[in-house]
Amino acid sequence: MALRDILILPDKRLRKVSEPVKKIDSAIRRLVEDMFETMYDAPGIGLAAIQIGTAKRIVTLDLAKKDEPNDPQVFINPEIVWSSAEKATYEEGCLSIPEFYDEVERPAQVKVRYLDLEGKSCEIEADGLLATCLQHEIDHLNGTLFIDHLSKLKRDRVIKKFAKAAKRAAETA
Ligand code: K1U
Ligand code: ZN
User: Fold this and answer.
1) Largest CB tally within 10 Å, which of 49, 52, 73, 108?
2) Does residue 136 line the site of ligand 1, with CB under 6 A?
3) Nearest in space to 36 (alpha carbons), one of 63, 74, 93
4) How high is the pLDDT of residue 173?
5) Distance (Å, whole) CA 58 – CA 99
6) What atom in ligand 1 is closest to the CA of residue 91?
7) Which ligand is nearest to the CA of 145?
């Protein structure tokens, strides 16, 4: 297992559309292990493979509460096959946009089809935080960030702030 660096806004790789996984082999299993190690270390409750620089359609999640045992979940090639008309608003964060949080409105319930680590086709109906996280992570696989759901004014402000920070870091490196 390896702890991997998380890409930070405005890294252009975060805007890539990730490729479907064709075969679940040892390289994919190692990537999933690295994703969990990186996600737990951050700490975060979700991660898309592109956030560690690998443009494959893989998502890891663990929504267990602090006093509960870990509940690692892997979604390979996840697709939203149904979304509710009802909407829900959650305050979202993103490991690629550290320390910025804002409310995002999304479908309250979704049905997601995906492969598990054994390559079995599965479906899950999600609501609450699970529905929000799945949509947030599937957005990552399509190069979309949660700030894209905010007003242009807010989005541009955040991008500008992170671009400035990246420039300063590059100058002092
Ligand atoms: O995709 C990511 O960057 C991970 C992100 C997932 C997410 C959080 C909230 C709403 C939608 C999607 C995070 O994990 S941000 C960190 C976070 O929410 C958290 C971290 C530690 C404990 C509890 C929450
Ligand atoms: Zn994110």
Assistant:
1) 49
2) yes
3) 74
4) 79
5) 24
6) 10
7) 2
Ligand 1 center to residue 92 CA distance, Å?
A: 7
Residue written as token pair 């807010």: 154
pLDDT averaged per 10 residues, the chain (length 173): 96 98 98 98 98 98 96 98 98 98 98 98 98 99 98 98 96 88
Taking the model in full, what pTM does it have?
Answer: 0.98
**DSSP track, 83-110:** E-SSEEEEEE--TTSTT--EEEEEESEE
Distance between CA 87 and CA 93 in Å, rounded? 18
Q: Which of 44, 24, 28, 30 is nearest to 140 (CA)?
A: 44
Q: Which residue has the CA at smallest separation from atom 22 of ligand 1?
A: 44
